[in-house]
Every structure is written in structure tokens, then in C-alpha cells.
Amino acid sequence: MIEIDLTGRRAVVGGSSRGLGLASAQQLAEAGAEVILMARSEEKLQKALQSLSVKAGQTHRYLVVDYADPVGFEKAVSAYFSDVPVHILVNNTNGPAPGTVMEKRVEDFQQAFDLLFKSYVILTQTLLPGMLKAGFGRIINVSSSSVKEPISNLVLSNSIRSAVVSWAKSLSREVASSGVTVNTILTGSFDTERLMEVVEGQAVKAGKSPAALIEQKILSIPSGRLGRPEEYGYLVTFLASPLAAYINGVSIPIDGGFMTAI
Fold first, then answer.
1. What is the CATH number of domain 10-190+228-254?
2. Of 8, 121, 181, 238, which sits 20 to 30 A from 142 (CA to CA)?
């Protein structure tokens, strides 16, 4: 059996007070990494911190940030990480509000850009020099299957996440020779609060119950179920490990076989 040991590595996980971010942080900690959680709610971060394994003697921490405020976000991360080397970065934020093309204005796209793209770039550029100096780094971007097959009523996410994938591919080629990898996860449907929030919005537009839409969604997934958050964490932890050193610049779907694209 393959065992992943991240003892001595420090990981930063964005949007980690709940959902897939928290599940990723939990699995990284289980593998021995020291984890720094990041999110908006200090109360939720404090609760999340208590769920992280300390079996390797780690001291986990958290940083309160607002991803929607790029100026404040940059100041916060620049100050906090000025003397804190990081080996693993999981770029993740809460998603933008749902909506269709004609419902969204230019200002909405700018806000989504700040949230989903600008924050990834700011945090990566802050932490990357330390990774290059150490000769080891793992940058893992949380994205969506919508970059290959756009999802109805999520135009902001569909658009901006596609830009993240292109940026990540470009970066991966620039840093590959330095022991740093950059990969993106194309997320399918997982049993999280975020999914329920999206479904509730879709239900109102469709005139159906959220439960009916969830059932419909499950029927469209070849695996016949929603993903479990810990399964997402397993993939993140593998990509963060030395075992994945030759996996670089790719976008990996984790969706139970939902996407029909090759």
C-alpha cells in the first residue's frame, strides 16, 4: 500500500473553513503536513482547526482573509507570509453568485475575476519564491468541470475558471525545472454546502424542489452518487506529495465520470 508522508511540509489551503477546502486540509494534516487555513469567518476557522490531525506533532494555524477584497487580501498575505515558508498551496475560494449571461453586468465579471483569478495570482506570487528557493513546491488550483463543459446559470464561474486553467498551464511550464508543479482539479458534484446553495438557486429558476434537482444530478453521474469531500482531499494530498513529481500542468477531472468530453 502506498503511504503519503508530508511531515515537515507546510501547506496553505484557501477557502478551508468548510467543504472541499476543509476536506483537503484534513487529509493534508492526516498525511503529516502543517496546515494554515484561510477563509473569511474566524469562528468557522477556529472550529475547522480543531478537526485537523496533529499526530505528526504539527501546529496548525489560520489566517482570516477576504478574497473579494484584492487590496486587503494582498496586504494580509504579504505581511503574514513574509517569513513563513510554504511548500504546498491549494488555491481555493468560495464561488461567485450564480446567474446567466444576460443577468450579469461587467461589474459582476470584475468581482468574479477578483475573487477567482486575482486572489490565486496574488497568493501564488507571494508563496512561489519560497518554493523555488526550497526546490520543492506544489500549487494545486481548485477549479470546475465547467471549464470543459459550461454549467447552466453559472456564467461567472464558467468564464473566470477557464482563465485560471490557462494561467496555471503557463505557470507550470515556467517553474517545472525548479521542482515546483502546478496542477488544476476540475471539480464535479460533491456533497457540500456549496452544492446545495447552487442547487437551491437553480431550483427557484426551474420551479422544482432542490431534492428533485439533486436526484436528477445523481442520475446524470455514471458513478450514481455525489462525491464525498474526503475523496477530493485524497487527490489533493497525492498531488501535493513527492509521488506526483512528474504530474505537471494538467487539469484533472474528479466527477464520477460525469463529463462526456475526452
1. 3.40.50.720
2. 8
The domain locations on the chain are 10-190+228-254
- The tens digit of pLDDT for each residue in 144-202 reads 999 999 888 789 999 999 999 999 999 999 999 999 999 999 999 999 988 888 888 77
**Under 8 Å between Cβ of 165 and 251:** yes
**Edge-to-edge strand ranges of the sheet holding 34-39:** 61-64, 34-39, 10-13, 88-91, 137-144, 180-187, 251-254
Gap between the Cα atoms of 192 and 240, Å rounded: 22
3-state secondary structure the chain: CCCCCCCCCEEEECCCCCHHHHHHHHHHHHCCCEEEEEECCHHHHHHHHCCCCCCCCCCCEEEECCCCCHHHHHHHHHHHCCCCCCCEEEECCCCCCCECHHHCCHHHHHHHHHHHHHHHHHHHHHHHHHHHHHCCEEEEEEEEHHHCCCCCCEHHHHHHHHHHHHHHHHHHHHHHHHCEEEEEEEECCECCHHHHHHHHHHHHHHCCCHHHHHHHHHHCCCCCCCECHHHHHHHHHHHHCHHHCCCCCCEEEECCCCCCCC
